[in-house]
Amino acid sequence: MADETVQLEPAAKCADVTLALSRVAGEVLETMFFTEAMTAECEHGWLSSAVSVQVAFTGSHFGEMWLAVGEEAVPPIASAFLGLDPEESNEMERSQVILELANILCGAILSSMWPESRLQLEAPKLVAWTSEAERGWHCCLELPEGRMAISIHLAGVSEAS
To answer: Among 69, 55, 59, 80, which residue's Cα sits nearest to residue 153?
Structure first.
């Protein structure tokens, strides 16, 4: 396995996984959404009003990824991805961009964590953030536009992996 691969030991490797989550998220946000992300202290009061997405995955590993984007960050993130001024995108387009962001992040994070794995991502869906989303590995990020949170809950590993 590559040196950057994160093993399946959440308690022992929590700091490594948090670094991987923030590193991969930063790369995706910079290259595809033209913004920066810095690891931030977890303060979750804002999550109840965030736009939240859940992406389930199956295959050699199975579980789910949760993404929350602060309301104030959604218009500029969507506009940057679409190449529009913030007032030119509508709510439907913004929702679609956040769903796509979750899909891209999930694929990139899982590929970084388990590069030899065989995974299928289910269609991302908009959901309300719950405390259940914070199980497993979690990191909070600060963007110039607002906040973002990412959680990965690994439910298991397939016997065939």
So the answer is: 55
Which helix (H) or strand (E) is 101 found in, with range?
helix 91-113
The model's pLDDT over 147-158, given as tens digits with 9 standing for 90+, comes to 999 998 888 777
CA distance linking residue 82 with residue 116, whole number of Å: 32
Query: If you search the block for the tokens 């990965």, which residue do you land on?
Result: 152
CATH number of 10-154: 3.40.1550.10
| Beta-bridge partner residues of 61 | 157
Rounded to two decimals, the pTM is 0.83
Domain boundaries, the chain: 10-154
pLDDT tens track for 10-56: 443 556 777 778 888 989 988 888 888 877 787 878 888 899 999 99
Which is nearest to 21 in space by CA: 156, 150, 120?
150
Token reading at 133: 């989303």
Looking only at the bridges linking them, the beta strands covering 137-143 and 146-157 are antiparallel
Give Dmax (Cα) for the chain.
49
* Dihedral-angle region of residue 157 (phi above 0 means left; psi in -120 to 50 means alpha; beta otherwise): beta
